[in-house]
């Protein structure tokens, strides 16, 4: 039996979302929020919708099960927040890793504003204020870690936990089975193994503490430092996609996808 749900998210989302959420209706409210209403078959489908909302970067304000024939049943369900399930900070030989906060915007902007860094990143904001608007979004902070060296922020990492693709009948078993990682290091500190050290620790946390079974990462094929890092930490190149991604200055470009399974990690980690 299906259950009706109402998701309320920040901002006015466009009609495209009715396709993203399997036919949910979209209603724009005067307070600048959007309400998506529809029904789900089971918890697995509900969590799939939550993962899609999270992956598309929309900020979820509330989730409500709509009253059914059994009465006025209303419940709130928290959005999965993987970083909150781990104790922080984490220390490696030389570095400290901790979840990012809004106060880290300026420190990360110091290296993210450099062309040699931003040329590989999804967005290249023009100034600190536009960068801050992106960095401080709750959905972004919930998946961002900063890397500190002697108390100074020298890099940041992305950890996005997601459901693996699965057929409907076994979807529950694929929930939060996969994590996608990303990384940025201050170029002043390149070539000393700091990124390797931070990413190794993050992969270890994924497998040993979050129970993830597969860690993935992607990059432009031309971003050699990034894919060399993936290989240093034991990831395997699984995909070379030809001319599938549009780079803002290089045009249509090839991309690589890498992955490592928890069973493999225990052998190389
Ligand atoms: C991707 C990125 C993090 C890689 O940085 P990096 O400095 O090459 O990586 P590390 O810090 O792990 O350093 C590795 C280098 O240090 C050397 N090194 C020295 N000591 C080391 C140690 N203890 N452990 C490992 N490597 C060590 C390695 O041999 C390697 O050198 P090489 O490149 O000459 O082979 C960095 O280039 C970056 O931030 N790029 C811009 C943002 C970006 O592209 N992000 C990814 C988008 S997909």
From TrEMBL:
InterPro entries according to UniProt: Acyl_CoA_acyltransferase, GNAT_dom, N-acetyltransferase
Domain N-acetyltransferase: 95-257
TM helices/strands, residue ranges: none
PROSITE patterns to which the protein is assigned, alphabetical: GNAT (PS51186)
Gene3D superfamilies, per the entry: 3.40.630.30
PANTHER family documented for this protein: GNAT FAMILY, PUTATIVE (AFU_ORTHOLOGUE AFUA_3G00765)-RELATED-RELATED
Record's protein name: N-acetyltransferase domain-containing protein
């Amino acid at each position: 039996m299906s259950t009706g749900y109402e998701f309320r998210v920040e901002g006015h989302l466009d009609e495209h979302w009715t396709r993203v959420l399997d036919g949910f209706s979209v209603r724009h409210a005067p307070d600048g929020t959007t309400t998506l209403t529809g029904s789900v078959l089971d918890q697995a489908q509900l969590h799939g919708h939550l993962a899609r909302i999270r992956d598309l970067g929309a900020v979820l304000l509330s989730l409500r099960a709509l009253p059914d024939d059994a009465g006025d049943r209303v419940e709130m369900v928290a959005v999965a927040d993987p970083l909150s399930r781990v104790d922080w900070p984490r220390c490696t030989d030389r570095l400290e890793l901790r979840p990012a906060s809004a106060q880290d915007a300026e420190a990360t902007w110091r290296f993210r504003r450099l062309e040699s860094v931003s040329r590989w990143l999804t967005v290249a904001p023009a100034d600190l204020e536009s960068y801050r608007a992106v960095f401080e979004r709750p959905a972004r902070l919930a998946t961002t870690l900063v890397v500190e060296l002697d108390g100074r922020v020298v890099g940041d990492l992305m950890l996005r936990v997601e459901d693996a693709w699965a057929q409907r009948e076994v979807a529950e078993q694929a929930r939060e089975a996969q994590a996608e990682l990303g990384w940025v290091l201050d170029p002043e500190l390149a070539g000393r193994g700091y990124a390797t050290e931070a990413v190794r620790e993050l992969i270890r946390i994924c497998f040993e503490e979050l129970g993830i079974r597969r860690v993935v990462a992607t990059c432009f094929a031309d971003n050699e430092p990034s894919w060399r890092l993936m290989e240093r930490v034991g990831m395997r190149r699984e995909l070379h996609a030809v001319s599938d991604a549009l780079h803002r200055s290089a045009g249509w470009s090839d991309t690589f996808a890498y992955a490592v399974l928890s069973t493999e990690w225990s052998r190389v980690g």
